Amino acid sequence: MNKASASSYLVENPKYSFLKELGLEKKNMGVFNGRWTGNGDIVTSVCPTDNTPIADIVQGNLNDYEDTINRLQTAWQTWADIPAPQRGEIVRQIGDALRQKKSALGQLVSLEMGKVLLEGEGEVQEYIDICDYATGLSRMIEGKVLPSERPGHALLEMWNPLGVIGIISAFNFPVAVYGWNNAIAMVCGNTMLWKGAPSTNLCSIAVIKIISSVLKKNELPEEICSLVCGGADIGSAMAKDTRLPLLSFTGSTNVGLQVAIEVQKRFGKCLLELGGNNAIIVSDDADLDMVIQSAVFACVGTAGQRCTTTRRLIVHEKVYNEVVERLKKAYTQIRVGDPINPCNLYGPMHNKQGVDSYLKTIEEAKKAGGKVEYGGKVMEGYSGNFVEPTIITGLSHDAEVVHRETFAPIVYILKTSSVDEAIKWNNEVKQGLSSSIFTQSLGNVFKWLGPKGSDCGIVNVNIPTSGAEIGGAFGGEKHTGGGRESGSDSWKQYMRRSTCTINYTKELPLAQGIKFE
Questions:
Q1: Which range is the signal sequence, renumbered to this chain (predicted)?
Q2: What's the confidence (pLDDT) of residue 6?
Q3: Computed from CA positions of residues 420, 425, 426, 429, in that sequence, does the dihedral angle turn out positive or negative?
Q4: Which of 34, 111, 156, 464 could in theory staple to 298 by disulfide, Cβ–Cβ 3.0 to 4.6 A?
């Protein structure tokens, strides 16, 4: 939002002393490229719990962006020459610095984004975990030695850093998504420019302050990890900039498509983490205690604002009624309130636009024949963006509103007659991020995991669609974008591969037995 007219900012309230602990002030510079600056618009970060101002941020403009890119290119000359294990040591120290600030940073995530404290701290822990992972990876990035068909020749595969990369992250994970990219990209030898969501600028600034302190302590260029807070003009510049060989973008499918087009126009690389219309399938032999516990977390966690949130519950007709009634009962026990209060499990939507989308979608669902079994309204007695977690039944599996991702705590419960039918319904939406089946049948499990099973990037069994571990690759197919972040071999996306043939003889045989004489 624009600069607040209110005289009272939360950063000045002793109750929120953790903001000062993170180095935040009433007015914060939103550009870091070795020094803190900013010459763009002044915006105010607000708390979604009650829409009060937290602090002001001076964003960057295109001149700030240009200066930052130039500084990043210079910093890369130093960073790329440092051996990967030494880069890993720096990332290890970043992880330790995050540990020291975990409580404060987790509280900031809750305050600025709106997710409950256990999720805010969990997000910071995820960044810490990926730092540990990347530290080990720094000693294990491997090439290959391949057999050559020519005598006296060696055939190698080498990996080298891309250079300066761009990272654009979303409001729902204002720390962890950057962490996935940052830790892996650093050990791979890249420098990076980050543009976080404009509504979570304070999280971005706090993280960069932590990282820059580690770089400074090690007498390295602090601009290795740079930041430009800004709006669409900065994002557009990043998408079009040929000096960024890779742009990692997390956000909506519509914006991601435009980013991908711009990057492809210049033959750059895109790492896209976009939307999800995720389903849990409940077979007739499922453990319903596990189903209900998992569904509550997956449907209402982060107030339905995770890309992995369960939006469709596809339930076998034999257990359908029981699941609906038990889930409704479980929803009545969700503890709602200020997300910084560790007792609460459900906080506000991030902004008013999310509330409007929630209300509009519920009206569309009702017009299409849906029945609101639980929720469906803005919560009374709250000054912030609180809405009721909502359960809707009675809609067809292919209803337009069911097929459209709404970033809100709305779940559609669909009745199915078989697992085969449920798998088809799981796969018929445009997105392909996360999915799960609850069953005790090995046949169902391996059907679900096989070539005719779930077409998603995350295919779970007897666990929620949300809550991925960092050791596996995270991402999805189709309109989710196809990108992979975090673990497994996701590191390859931050590097370029070269095939190298070395002739160590005085002869010059050609491949395929060609004689060119």
A1: none
A2: 46
A3: positive
A4: 464
Coil vs helix vs strand at 248: strand
pLDDT tens per residue, range 189-218: 999 999 999 999 999 999 999 999 999 999
Residues catalogued as catalytic? 273
Give the relative orientation of helices 117-137 and 176-187 as an angle to the nearest 10 degrees: 10
Can you read off the two tokens belonging to residue 494? 């931050």
Q: Specify the DSSP element, H or E, that contains 259.
A: helix 253-265
pLDDT of residue 517: 86
d(CA 33, CA 212): 10
Looking up tokens 């400074």, which residue turns up? Answer: 216
3 state SS for 132-170: HHHHHHCCCCCCEEECCCCCCEEEEEEEEECCEEEEECC
H/E stretch holding 85 reads helix 84-100
Q: pLDDT for 127-159, tens place per residue?
A: 999 999 999 999 999 999 999 999 999 999 999
Residue 164 vs residues 44, 84, 191, 198, 404: alpha-carbon distances, Å: 29, 16, 5, 22, 35
Token duo for residue 505: 């003889």
> How many residues belong to the chain?
517
